[in-house]
Amino acid sequence: NIPAYFCFSGYGGVQNAVVDAMTRNKTITFYHFEPDMFHLQYEGYLTRIALPRAQPKIVATATGTFSENGYDWLLTPPSHPLTCVDRSYGNPTTNPINVDFSAEKLKFYFSNVLDSDTFLVRFLNNFQLAQIDINSLLATLVKLSNNHAITNAPFTAACKWVKENYNIWKSWVDPLPLCTLKAHMQYKMMGCNDSSRMITFLWSVPDPTNASLPYQCDGGTTSLPSPLSTSRSCDWLNSNVDQWTPWLRSKPLCDRMFYNYSVAACDASATRAVGFFWLLPQLANPLLSVECTGGVALPSNTTVQCDYVPTNSSAYAAMSGFAIIVLLLLICGTLLIVIFRERPVIKRAQWPLLVTMIFGGICICIYVLLGAGVPSSGLCATRPIMVIFGFTLIFGSLLVKGLRVYWVFENKSLKKVTVSLWKIAKLLFIMLCIDSVILLAWMVADFPAPTTETKAATEFVGQVDHISCHSSSFIFSAILIFWKAIITLGGVYVSFLIRHAGSDFQESVWIFASSCVVLLVALVLLPLVYAADLPPATAYLFQSTLLLVGTLAVMGLMLGPKFYRLNAQDKSSASTKDRKGSGSTTRTASIVNSRRTLSTKGSASQIQNK
């Protein structure tokens, strides 16, 4: 029990009274809470009075009351800080406590709103400061407060303490997770519309003072990966994050996904150069890739066959030269036939049909000349038209000429038979009309347009675009082949029947021989076109050679004997005399073992009994 009256002047009043007493070198007794900056500001000037030691059983009896029966009011105006202007005497307190104040733990309160932040709640629950730590903080704050250059002394003092006392406060916060790319980093892709992509990385929550450091993780991948260059598309990268993220640590093994190839246009050798290259080659060594290592090596460059014969190739130069020579020969043959059309050997062979047959040969030459070059709509339409009409004009002329001979020489009644040019021309015209109808239906219903199709290459692992004249169905080609087969077989059969029919120029033999040539060419050409798998240049050489040689053979067989017998026929015709004064002139030709003669007058053939 201390026989004293206690003046209550408030916390600030007590401190002012103590400072005033120190200033006047007086003594004052007061009670105060510590730790407090006041004790550190005047360290060495204050002495703690030792009261009886606090005992837990006595502390537990405290009622928490003080001066409930009255106490002194101490008013301390600035002019008289220690003067009690109003004194009210009280009676002793009823609180039985009679020991020193016990130490109390620091308490703090926070709103329930913070419960939503688990991380912050755990931090506050773990927060704990010992008195020595508080004293250290307050001592630093006192020193900094006297430094007017520091604008925020409390923050500076706290920051200094945190930097120097990691071992104390590290237990307040939960350990940060290990840094991982998936959880704590973001990536950005650049160049999605270019040939390569660049992936850069940044922290999802970077350190405010250093963006290259993480703020929500510690350990693990603590540094940002270097930018990644890749040839994969942005869509692939977004869909396969787990596949390419290991590439940040080590490059993947090279496979065919890391290189590409280019197929050049057709060159003069009728081949296309195939060049292989890494999608991202090293600048110093293009044979190595930037984005992969080991694995497969870059394939060697190679070539593939063209789908067509280039117009600057040696094969086309040879065949076009050959076709032009044949074309000039055919034109010369046409001129000779027209010039000598009145000669009996030409006239009896019905020279318009010979000219028609030569026009068919000209169509074949044009077909050969159009057989090279990049497929286009014009070429895809003109090529079949030329070869179809060329075949019909040649073989159709042979067929109707064979029918003419057959009708004349197979006349069993030995009566006069007239086979006019118009009659056999109508047959040829009908065949041409059938060709035209089939071709027109083909061009309208299923035009053989130039079509590009991607197929697997045989020379290397990859695909190549192939361009060709393509129809969706084979039906029209099949109809034309069937129709030409009927004409061919019919013509060969007719020429076989008349092979022994004779005249002074033996045209039936040449018709049969020419028909056999056409049949042979057709039998060789069909499998070559539809069955054999030859390089385009080789196929073009074989096809063109067959067509041109066959055309020359047919024209030679049909025109050669006639040109050879031009003068001989003139001499035979000059010896013809008027018979029995009738005044009429008749050109006759003997028929072996027969009494029939073939008389040619104008454009008609007549058989008369002699």
TrEMBL record:
One of its GO terms (cellular component) is G protein-coupled receptor heterodimeric complex. InterPro entries: GPCR3_GABA-B (IPR002455), GPCR_3_C (IPR017978). Residues 322-582 form the G-protein coupled receptors family 3 profile domain. Keywords: G-protein coupled receptor, Glycoprotein, Membrane, Receptor, Transducer, Transmembrane, Transmembrane helix. Pfam families: 7tm_3. The chain crosses the membrane at residues 315-339, 351-373, 385-407, 427-445, 474-498, 510-532, 538-559. GO terms for molecular function: G protein-coupled GABA receptor activity. CDD domains: 7tmC_GABA-B-like. It is a multi-pass membrane protein. It is found in: Membrane. Its main location: membrane. This is G-protein coupled receptors family 3 profile domain-containing protein.
